[in-house]
Structures are given as C-alpha cells and as structure tokens.
Design goal:
Blueprint: E1 13-14, H1 23-26, H2 34-44, E2 52-58, E3 64-72, H3 80-97, E4 101-107, H4 116-131, E5 136-143, E6 146-150
Parallel strand pairs: 4-5
Antiparallel strand pairs: 1-3, 2-3, 2-4, 5-6
Length: 156
C-alpha cells in the first residue's frame, strides 16, 4: 500500500500496523454486533500501552478490511480543526480502499471510565463524522485493563 495514501496533519504521526490475526481469518467473520467489534478490538489492540487513536475499516458486508491505522501524538484535547482534518483524511482513505464504515479506538493507559479529555475526543470525532457523512460504526476505549465499547452516553 502506498504510504502517501495516509497523509495526516501534524502533530499526529501515522504508520500502518500489521493485523494481529490473519486477514484470511478476519475476512470470513463479519462484525455484525457490538460484541463482535469489542472482541475483535480486544484481539487486535488489547489493553492500552500508550496514547493513540486506532482506525479500523469495514466494507459493506461488515467485514474488516486489511488495514489498521494507529495515529500517535494526539493532543490531550481536540480542536475543531484537528478533528475535522482527521475525519477528512478518514473519508479519503475510506474512498480509496472501498470502506463503508470506520471504527475508532481511543487507546490510553488509565481507568475504564472516560476522562473529560477522552470524552472531548469521542464527542468531537462523532460530531465530525456526522457533519462529513462518514459512517461511524463504533467507538471504543482501550484502557489499562482491557477494551470497552462506548455507547454514546458515556459523558463524564
């Protein structure tokens, strides 16, 4: 894959990450429920080690596409401009790889509850996806003891 495909705005830095489970295996298992998504994210990302945002992409059949993108160097709080640029790039990547939906995973070492900063990122990304017509399938939190689905009512 051409790495110029993913040109994020500073201060974020991106790289492509290898998938932890074989694509051939994941390609056969659609993510049709929140539980399926939570389990897949637990398998791929697991407990938090650092602060970053992960992007997973689904096709029209809810199958995960073979690309997993970590974005490092997130500021503690998003600005409207930063969130907008992230979602613009997500939309561009989705168009190029034929994705129908995105899953965001906020990884940070800490408790399973959202901090005010986490909540700001979750809300900002959700808002930008809605404004830019990007289908957001799910948002999850990778924390020090595991992974949990964020259902949209997790405001702290």
């Amino acid at each position: 894959m051409d790495r110029t495909l993913i040109s994020w705005c500073s201060p974020t830095r991106t790289m492509l990450a290898p998938m932890a489970i074989p694509y051939e295996e994941s390609a056969l298992l659609p993510l049709t429920s929140d539980h399926d998504i939570e389990r897949r994210v637990a398998d791929l990302i697991g407990r938090a080690n650092s602060r970053q945002l992960w992007l997973l992409f689904l096709d029209e059949f809810e199958l995960q596409l073979p690309i997993l993108i970590p974005i490092e160097g997130l500021p503690s709080e998003p600005t409207d401009d930063e969130s907008s640029r992230v979602v613009e790039r997500v939309r561009e990547v989705m168009a190029q790889i034929g994705a129908s939906a995105v899953i965001f995973v906020l990884e940070r070492y800490g408790p399973s509850t959202l901090s005010a900063h986490d909540d700001a990122w979750v809300r900002s990304l959700r808002k930008e996806c809605a404004e830019q017509a990007v289908t957001l399938r799910a948002q999850l939190l990778s924390h020090r003891t595991g992974v949990r689905l964020l259902d949209g009512y997790d405001a702290n």
